[in-house]
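> Could you send the succinate dehydrogenase prediction when you get a chance?

Sure thing. Input:
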Amino acid sequence: MGILDSKVPKGPLAEKWTKHKNEINLVNPANKRNIDVIVVGTGLAGGSAAATLAELGYNVKTFCYQDSPRRAHSIAAQGGVNASKNYQGDGDSDYRLFYDTIKGGDYRSREANVYRLAEVSGNIIDQCVAQGVPFAREYGGLLDNRSFGGVLVSRTFYAKGQTGQQLLLGAYAAMNRQIHRGKIKSFTRHEMLDLVVIDGKARGIIARDLVTGEIERHSAHAVVIASGGYGNLFFLSTYCMGANVMAAWRTHRRGAFFANPCFTQIHPTCIPVSGEHQSKLTLMSESLRNDGRIWVPKKLEDAKAIREGKLKPTELAEEDRDYYLERRYPAFGNLVPRDVASRAAKERCDAGYGVNKTGEAVYLDFASAIKRYGTEKAYTSGIQDPDEDTVRRLGEEVIEAKYGNLFQMYEKIVDQNPYKTPMMIYPAVHYTMGGLWVDYNLMTTIPGCYSIGESNFSDHGANRLGASALMQGLADGYFVLPYTIGDYLSKDIRTGKIPTDSPEFDKAEKDVRDRLEKLMSGKGKHSVDYYHKKLGKIMWDKCGMSRNEKGLKEAMKEIAELRKDFWENVKVPGSADSKNQELEKAGRVADFLEIGELFAKDALDRNESCGGHFREEYQTPEGEALRDDKNYKYVAAWEYKGEPKDAKLHKEELVYENIELKTRSYK
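Output:
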């Protein structure tokens, strides 16, 4: 087990996927009725995969910890979904989307997977329109597009600021149809606690009913992990509170390699932290950077006056504002990739130019866009010499039509009207590019165990471009996994039902019960949140937007000590055999305390800067990321060996035959 064979097909890049689909084995419809598949997670990746597999004829079981698949965190995605349809006629193509994604990921992703993603992206839009997803349309009735960071074209399809919600409703509707047909059995309020491996193959899971506390056994011929990312190990993040790494980490402990854990995305457009009371952060969509201009005061005394409440941002003259992204990156301006924009904001705030009370915020200003749109609308409405009030009113109407729900959300949280005063934003943890290692077929190093969407590592390299998460989740679920899983399952048509009374299921269930009992037996000195917050602070301070050797070594030591203290002293009230949300949290934080150390180990081992992984020792004179393609042009896949510090590194060398490796430049 554990040989890193990516199984990338031979031949020209643009023909690999078509050739592969023509050559892999298929399962005929009559045999599909006898094959069971488990899907863990029902967001865009899991929901679309479950619906498609059931439509093909497989018997599917889905598991989610929410009370409905509709409540998956995919619902929170705001800005849009990418596809290379070139509706704008601005030069987009499959190759351009492929190139932008590889470059945006700082040349740390697999060429073949990313090209396939670009190739099937157009199908996603057709699928979702057919499902009734209400994408925005332009004046003539055609689908509209907008731009996101790191690209020079408009390829992002969107539904106001609710794109994730609308796409998830489409996938959920497709799931629901299969549930009513009896092809999907939906297990809500269930959490996967372990993977069951029989004769080297994934054959089922152990799950806990979160309402009754009952431990259940579920068997299948293949298991699909679609449970999202692990960013909540930072405690404060834009993830939903329940997002965790348990399904992926249990799979890792059973033999699946975990790839690039240190590749974590910091999103530049988040509402700043307001105090110790917070348990999560709220994102403002990257789409706002289409029209919002990011700035800080040019003078330190002005920044200080704003922080002290003596000066309002609207009172600062244009010549006294530093539009630092436009200044540093003239070609891309405010639409540089997320990692670049995040580091630039941190640099300005660290230099003393931050604008909120904590000094950790910059402005996102829509005054120019309101004036521009207002003037345009006045002329198209026949108003030749509009006054300032008319221009502002008309401009605000345009902005409201494009971003209204986002502005409303900001005002509810911050109690400031973003139409009248600039938004305040600051970077925050948003997405994880690392995850379970998968081959071209999306299979992990455990045969029969697949990973799709954010839970795998495959498509985004060291930095994800905006609007590509929804693209990958839906591509994996609708258009990739349903093909590739058949190649594996074609060898299982005579296997028959997988029994759940085997020694392997017995052992897996015993391991789960022992772990729950151990969690309940702590001395009770501190709450689960006490440990989660401590871990989050270590991660943000020493493994966050910038890292260095000294801090990473300290982080590994401190996390190991915190984990030891957690198992001895955590307080989990209630019992394991009933509804117990503190026990749920404890299990998740226990996993965070393991992956946090592996995260630091991976970051320490990678002596270069690339994308979201910024090592202070490796930067250009201008403060940009400095890659080392000679020594680190590989995927770091870690094998579980007990303690995270003992994890064994396996390398998948990345080969670039169609793209020339260059220093990323957005200037």
